[in-house]
Amino acid sequence: MIEKKFGIIGKPLSHSLSPILHNFWFQKYKISANYSLIEIELDEIEGVIKKIRNNELQGINVTVPYKQAVIPYLDLIIDDAKKTSSVNTINLNEEGKVVGNNTDVYGLQRGFTDKLNNQNLTQNKVLILGAGGVTPSVILALEKKGIKRISISNRTQKKAEDIKKKFPLIELVEWKNIESKSEEMDIIINATSLGLQGGNDFKQIFKNIKPSLIYYDIIYNPRETTMIKILKQKCAKTFNGLEMFIYQGQKSFFLWNKIKPDLDEELKLTIKKNLK
Ligand code: ATR
Fold first, then answer.
1. Strand locations in 138-266, DSSP E?
2. Model-level pTM?
């Protein structure tokens, strides 16, 4: 039997647990396939997309920093990928077109926004930290939940301004002002890489917060960032990004294989074992 080939493109990729996730499911559903890390430079994107077109590769995920950069090489982008201009899943469709989709929004909905049941959600104030590849997906997932009062803040203000062009209703907060803004927020979301295992961390932890604050960290490695640990002590309700990661993978797997894989305990244990 011919083995199908899948993978993830990005740089750096050493932290990615996507191979663990997809290879677990390939084994479980007895699909002859392998999912690998494809660490590439920007100028190698075109070659990888060609492999999809030639059916040498049956599907790829895309991660930082290429979620936008892949778009010019695709034949079409659909659904949430179109709404966010951010692509994390690519495959060849039945008409031979290379299609870009986005499963991060679904991951955020299932892993986070579906769990929000605080009162008067539509009036809740949300602050998103970061304006990188995942931020447009965070905004769309919040908007799908009816949340409208969204602010974003990024160290490099220009990138936040670019996101505002696509989502004009969001407000911008200067990075130096996040500390003073934190106390009016109902929900704060970390969509930066601050707190990631082995990387930089926030210089300060929010001191003044609402006791009902919900803090969501896209990061899942470590499972508890310093910010989560400290805000938890202040009684904030906290979430990490592990479920989002698993659900975005579930939808990618479905798009490629037409099977909606189970999220069973064995899978969760396997993932947790592989977290450094
Ligand atoms: P990219 O922006 O290249 O797509 P990303 O991992 O999706 O990469 O995004 C990284 C995010 O973390 C960005 O919002 C980045 O801020 P800048 O746009 O100013 O670079 C943020 N980030 C990374 N290191 C940071 C730091 N030391 N302080 C503040 N923000 C940081």
1. 149-153, 171-172, 187-190, 214-217, 237-239
2. 0.96
CB 188 within 8 A of CB 206: yes
**Nearest protein Cα to ligand 1, atom 21:** 192
* Ligand 1 binding residues, C-beta < 6 A: 64-65, 130-134, 154-156, 159, 192-194, 200
Q: How far is the CA of 159 from the centre of ligand 1 (A)?
A: 10
List strands edge to edge, sheet with 237-239.
Answer: 171-172, 149-153, 125-129, 187-190, 214-217, 237-239
Quote the ligand 1 centre to 271 CA distance (angstroms): 25
Sign, CA dihedral 9-250-132-237, equals negative
The per-residue pLDDT string of the chain (276 residues; one tens digit each, 9 = 90 and over) reads 789 999 999 999 988 999 999 999 999 999 999 999 999 999 999 999 999 999 999 999 999 999 999 999 999 999 999 999 999 999 999 999 999 999 999 999 999 999 998 888 999 999 999 999 999 999 999 999 999 999 999 999 999 999 999 999 999 999 999 999 999 999 999 999 999 988 999 998 999 999 999 999 999 999 999 999 999 999 999 999 999 999 999 999 999 999 999 999 999 999 999 986
Which residue has 């931020």 as its token pair? 135
Atom of ligand 1 nearest to the CA of 155: 19
Is 67 noted as a catalytic residue in this protein? yes
Q: Whose CA is nearest to atom 25 of ligand 1?
A: 194
